[in-house]
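An instance follows:
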Amino acid sequence: MSARPLLLLAILAVSFGHFLHADDWWQFRGPGGNGDAGEVVVPTKWGGVFDKPYWATTIPGQGWSSPVVVANRIWITTSELVALEESKSEDKIAKRPYGVIDFQTHASVKLFALELNADTGEILRRIELFEIDDPPPIHSSNSYASPTPVSDGERVYCHFGALGTACIEIESGRVLWRREFKVEEITGGAASPVVWRNLLYLVCDGADQQFVVALDTSSGETKWRTDRPSLEGVDHAFRRSFSTPLIVESNPRTQLISMSAQWLVSYNPENGQEWWRAKVGSGYSAVPRPVFHGDKVFVSTGYSKPQMVAVNINGTDDVTDSHIVWKSQSHGPEISSPILVDGRIYFVSAIGIATSLDLETGEMVWQHRVGGGHASSPTYAGGHIYFTSNEGVTTVIRPGLEYVELGKNELFGETYASLAVYRNRFLLRTNPVLYCLE
């Protein structure tokens, strides 16, 4: 398994036209976008009296983006909030057409990118990217800085959903360009940006409009924009999606595979033309990122009752009736992405039920309640799978035909961010500390 991330890294180095280091964890869920760090030597125990972190840095502001690492530098986003008077906040929320429960409002928000030294945790640069007066309300479990940055080794791209996207030149720290795509997200942004060759991809699946857009990485210019498949018979709130797309390099075509409300869609990443589409269910607000193996892609369909679905990627046009291989209703993940290890798929639901399915058949291998709430996506490293709960507890298991728990590790502070791997270390973001664990 350790060869897979390195092989993909070599392919991407050629695609980008410049070098990415073998240690780089440059996008959400790592080099392959699938949470697979390979056979690295990483810790299985931390958080006790004698298990001190390698370093711990307090991150100013608020955010749930996961850290990325490029050339010994960590990039992470955050937001600084100005409170709104209680009476004005109540009035603002009461005017919302999409419901009022569990939302928070603010008078203004500033959005930043932070650069840290990966070996010491020192904050090197704090770059202001946007300042928004009267920002839209967001769900209380979300933040204004939830999408994870992505880098091509030369630039880092920071996305804040409908609030804006910015490109930073790594060497100088200069902001090269900014773009905004205004859609009604209702609960705030979540989908992370994706980079391939000289294009940056953003998913804009709002309640009012739904599309995927590709931007030129050097200028921010729109290269193509493709509307999502039509959605019939659903209210606007059920048209949203927050799933990060996945680039799949397969013969004879490269595919950008993205989950929208109801539809799983494959695009030609060069021009936005649809390769194929499959109506995988009636779900909405899908968050988990797809994963890929062999000739199949695996995706969770979203709220309110997520299913795990396997789809063959070799079709054309509407493949709903021909290329859906299997569906499983075994406590699919609402937020956390799945992970693939040795012919099985593993995932955890929002209420902490972990499940393993056979990749070929979708049949259940095992199911076990690990406890806690779960939004963070699991990581495979050094022969183990790591599930991190919202409460900061990471459960370590050994993949296989039975549930084998190796331990639980707790850090103080809630977390919705996913583990990143740098050399033989984990980077884990809690509120408000970024930990480096060796």
User: Anything to note?
Assistant: Residues 3-437 form a domain with the Methylamine Dehydrogenase; Chain H fold (CATH 2.130.10.10). The longest strand covers residues 106-117.
